[in-house]
Amino acid sequence: xxxxxxxxxxxxxxxxxxxxxxxxxxxxxxxxxxxxxxxxxxxxxxxxxxxxxxxxxxxxxxxxxxxxxxxxxxxxxxxxxxxxxxxxxxxxxxxxxxxxxxxxxxxxxxxxxxxxxxxxxxxxxxxxxxxxxxxxxxxxxxxxxxxxxxxxxxxxxxxxxxxxxxxxxxxxxxxxxxxxxxxxxxxxxxxxxxxxxxxxxxxxxxxxxxxxxxxxxxxxxxxxxxxxxx
Amino acid sequence: xxxxxxxxxxxxxxxxxxxxxxxxxxxxxxxxxxxxxxxxxxxxxxxxxxxxxxxxxxxxxxxxxxxxxxxxxxxxxxxxxxxxxxxxxxxxxxxxxxxxxxxxxxxxxxxxxxxxxxxxxxxxxxxxxxxxxxxxxxxxxxxxxxxxxxxxxxxxxxxxxxxxxxxxxxxxxxxxxxxxxxxxxxxxxxxxxxxxxxxxxxxxxxxxxxxxxxxxxxxxxxxxxxxxxxxxxxxxxxxxxxxxxxxxxxxxxxxxxxxxxxxxxxxxxxxxxxxxxxxxxxxxxxxxxxxxxxxxxxxxxxxxxxxxxxxxxxxxxxxxxxxxxxxxxxxxxxxxxxxxxxxxxxxxxxxxxxxxxxxxxxxxxxxxxxxxxxxxxxxxxxxxxxxxxxxxxxxxxxxxxxxxxxxxxxxxxxxxx
Amino acid sequence: xxxxxxxxxxxxxxxxxxxxxxxxxxxxxxxxxxxxxxxxxxxxxxxxxxxxxxxxxxxxxxxxxxxxxxxxxxxxxxxxxxxxxxxxxxxxxxxxxxxxxxxxxxxxxxxxxxxxxxxxxxxxxxxxxxxxxxxxxxxxxxxxxxxxxxxxxxxxxxxxxxxxxxxxxxxxxxxxxxxxxxxxxxxxxxxxxxxxxxxxxxxxxxxxxxxxxxxxxxxxxxxxxxxxxxxxxxxxxxxxxxxxxxxxxxxxxxxxxxxxxxxxxxxxxxxxxxxxxxxxxxxxxxxxxxxxxxxxxxxxxxxxxxxxxxxxxxxxxxxxxxxxxx
Amino acid sequence: xxxxxxxxxxxxxxxxxxxxxxxxxxxxxxxxxxxxxxxxxxxxxxxxxxxxxxxxxxxxxxxxxxxxxxxxxxxxxxxxxxxxxxxxxxxxxxxxxxxxxxxxxxxxxxxxxxxxxxxxxxxxxxxxxxxxxxxxxxxxxxxxxxxxxxxxxxxxxxxxxxxxxxxxxxxxxxxxxxxxxxxxxxxxxxxxxxxxxxxxxxxxxxxxxxxxxxxxxxxxxxxxxxxxxxxxxxxxxxxxxxxxxxxxxxxxxxxxxxxxxxxxxxxxxxxxxxxxxxxxxxxxxxxxxxx
Lengths: 230, 417, 326, 291
Known about the structure:
The complex is a heterotetramer of chains A (230), B (417), C (326) and D (291).
Chain A: E1 7-16, E2 19-29, E3 34-38, H1 45-52, E4 60-65, E5 68-69, H2 75-80, E6 83-86, H3 98-109, H4 115-120, H5 123-126, H6 137-149, E7 155-159, H7 167-180, E8 185-189, H8 193-199, E9 202-207, E10 210-215, H9 218-223
Parallel strand pairs in A: 3-8, 3-9, 6-7, 7-8
Antiparallel strand pairs in A: 1-2, 1-4, 4-5, 9-10
Helix pairs in contact in A: 3-6
Chain B: H1 2-20, E1 33-40, H2 47-66, E2 70-72, E3 75-85, H3 90-102, E4 107-110, H4 114-126, E5 131-133, H5 158-172, E6 177-183, H6 186-202, E7 205-212, H7 220-229, E8 233-236, H8 240-252, E9 260-265, H9 268-273, H10 276-279, E10 283-286, H11 298-315, H12 321-340, H13 345-354, E11 357-360, E12 363-367, E13 373-375, E14 379-384, E15 397-403
Parallel strand pairs in B: 1-3, 1-4, 4-5, 6-7, 6-8, 8-9, 9-10
Antiparallel strand pairs in B: 2-3, 10-14, 11-12, 12-13, 14-15
Chain C: H1 2-7, H2 11-24, H3 31-54, H4 61-79, H5 83-105, H6 110-131, H7 133-136, E1 142-143, H8 159-183, H9 185-195, H10 197-202, H11 207-233, E2 235-236, H12 246-256, H13 263-281, H14 285-299, H15 303-317
Helix pairs in contact in C: 2-8, 3-8, 3-11, 3-12, 3-13, 4-5, 4-6, 4-11, 5-11, 8-9, 8-11, 9-11, 12-13, 12-15
């Protein structure tokens, strides 16, 4: 089973200044898997993802990606290697147009083929010359994901992708994510349990910085019964 | 908390021991050296000026020591100078002044920056101490009761600078319509009131005026105003770097073609910082210009020459205006100490006031009751030389005339005497 | 805090110890130096508190120092002769200035707060130097040293009296800050402002009020130092509020360790000491001080006291728990 | 004093000249803040260094332009090493570290200038003499040149930021450098590039300013507060804001001194306070820039 995992997170601990946020968290991810990490506000989900993407340095523990340890490497190297983090605050570059947003990602990855982006999100094609600040929440999220899938990443870390989006857009996103996982493994952090029950193949529960539960049973995921642990 | 109490007892013990070890007074009546404290702003805005003053003071010290030292009743006494930096900061200056005193200085010379000189003077009022500031001190500080008994200022006030500038412009250059650019501080205001007094007396008119802050680097808008008013002479109160910027910009804007440019208190540093073409035809009052050749009072020329020679030999260049103020202050201090036969401030003060006439490198002078020296030649009227007139690196000016005497000073009545 | 109590004695004893030792230095070092260190430490204390405990960096400290100094100076120059009343007037002036300034400045976010304090300082300087010239005599300054009356118990008209008094005041100030920082809810609320303002709001505190109160306390402390300084020098001039000295208080705070109880003392001691020693040895001391500042900032980000306490705690407790700040 | 129209025109043009120098000096400051979130007080050292090198090169070669160019290139290398040696270590620390650190660099740098060039003010002759008549007023030719050059530099910077991919990355980084890094772009290269761009523009400002003022080691000090006002009024991190506020500050200084010279020194501060009280992020500062 060892090599079946593209990403292995091992015993990660992290802290912000003086306050400890994560206590020895571990999880694994298969190559085309969609897993979800759930937990309440402040449980340490975002910190965990940032540690995996090398944007934060964990105080202990390590992350193995494609058989190589990546802890302590520069975030941009990790991203170029195909492990990409998508921020939670719909943070497209406000001052840049959609085109420039995409161009930047192409520049970083050398992948100028935007057709796959437009395949999933045809709406972006019409919005190309609109500034980031003028997009709606859903459009921003589309751009964030579209930007991230340039360069065909092997793992996408999605932080709260459905936060504040209309239900219609959320269900569209669910479809997109399922299609995406043909080429890419997904780690999704979200609080929208019905959304997660639609797409997740495995669910990890995190509480006060510790991993408290791992559920792979489809039925349990669909009923969201794991929420009692959180 | 037991450990805490033990600490307190321990501390009390230390305090007691420390109190039993008071610093033993070591002041001998007939010291073998005269410790001269030198406190100058060696860093900060006035650093360039202070550097030349330090040189002049050390020259005066060397000259005394070459003669064997100060002539005191108990024999020759060598002078030892300690130089400290006041950083143009009142706290730092006062602190270092107190260091100098604690290290046993018998007198202090120094200060370019007026507020610090006044702060130190204030200390000397409470605790008498011979103090010889080397700046051009504000008029207010000469009001009766302001200066400490043993504070003697070798420079005069900006009022005199302004008065002389007005006198020279009106009576010597014959220019009666004046634009005056002041500096918005005591220096500028004092020059302004001196200038006004001169105008009133000799019939000049100030047709326009303005003021700018110290450290202004761009004068162009103000200069446009000057151009617009088009006076016969443009007198400025700017000093040092500000003066350089001002004169340079005046030249760039062509003011020199339309009027006489007159920098009220000019120095070699300013002349050096100017392109020769901007210096050409610039007028100014110079406290002491090193080349007095052609000046009628041969006595003065000779004395100045030997001072300039000594200075040039030691430092590779002639002394500047402010260096000479410092030199005069130091030599006067030495003379007074010798005459007093004592290092005590009361005796030094008495020695000066009993015998106020003295002769310095720029001629005869006399200490007035307000502790200002009345120079026969308070300042020299100079005209800037252009590149083709210049014969050597230090040949900046031509001396045209000299002004001085009681007439150029604010009256004692106006100062409350 | 429980831990530190069992390991050390009550911190209030340490405060007394530190100042008594500093006072005894008077017999080894020049008195002027020791006095300056104490007064400047009081001045820097407020600044250090704002930086370390609230994350507010103010480049306008000189103006609050000047408020205190001019309050005292106006009283002693124009009105009375009692130095104690003079100090009181100075502190009240500082209090008023910081209350009013706080209302406007505290609401700004951090970098803008820093720099608008700078602007406020420049405006204060301008007022003292130009606009109020009738009362302040501009750059000439106000001198009143010989006007100060001798007073009973501690005679503030003598330098010795000022030294005693400054040390007593300093101990009082440090007791106050010890209480504010680590013994009160207010101190915790301040730290919460620094870490996460939002969450403080959830807890039902008004972040603005916390910041404003801290700002007023810190800058009134600066004004107190200004008053002491004015009494000591017997002279004030607008240069006390000069913008070019704006960075100094912040630099000293960082040097000593911002937000620590003894950081200001250590910072001032080293900064003034270095300057006094280096300026005696080399003529261009700025070069040396500049390089040292860079080195200290790169190597020890917690400042001198901050780094020291880490080492001490590690060696005593033999664990890696972050120590509470001294 | 009644303001004559002729005086007003010349005040306007001369104000523009000041704006030009302010802009060159502050555009780098603003970019550094925006992208790296550092406040780089050492820009004033580069400014003074640029002026001093220009002065020396004029003395050796007699050519102002060569001096200007040498100054910019020398500063470029110095800034490169300072960024690598010093700034690298503090990008992740709170912003005040950069302030104090750069204050230290500035102090040390000015100390070195004093050591090499001494304290006395030095003359630099304007390479373009004469006056140009504009609407009936004579304006020094060199000022007009500075204005034109500043406009040119603005256009260049604008082109770089808006039309090149690296510039786009810089703009994105001003918004959020972490997100740029998460895309796979080496932001540290961007930081180095921005820093040396800023420093060379400061050196250019110093060299260009030299013929107008006096060249002294402390020359950066007198312009520091104005530079900060320009950056803050415009909004930290905004190039457009910097341009507009340097225009405004230049005009305020110019017209202020026309009315009463001391106004020139204080009016910008008052304006800055007013702007901040109304719009706490400056005129064009992004409210997303939180720090």
